[in-house]
Amino acid sequence: MRDFVSEWRQQGQLFVWRYRQPRQAYRGWHFTGDPAGCRSMRNLIDRMVGGAPCHRTLELARVTQAVHEVPGFLGPIDRHHPRLRVEYRPDATELRLEVEGDRLTMAAGGPAFSKLGAAFASVEIGGGDLGMRPSDDRKADPWWFWWMPRTDPAITYDKRTR
Asked: What is the pTM of this model?
């Protein structure tokens, strides 16, 4: 039997960050990616949904000055996480994102995973300033999805991300 998840290969760039001491409106995790990166993430989600529990690890790009400026809050970024492990758990009812050493681990399943794919679809076509709750817990920090800056994000380097 063919394993479509194992055949998946990452394309493009994805950025994930949170602020060290955010104001109320900037709490939580922030995501963006170039169109190829968002399309690649959606493709991975589509391959995972409906199958057995599985995971893949993605490379995350370092947040650049141009990416950092999109949300409009220039507070220091907590730290750079070079990898994101995406885990599909069919019985999961919420999204979870945790720091594990130098990587992030995202676990999700069911309808929550589909909502995540829809958020990346919006960013892929230039949408953004989109927030979503990772669970039914009203106190949970939201996840934010931002459009990519109009300039090439690889040109600048953000000295605030370490």
From this structure: 0.88
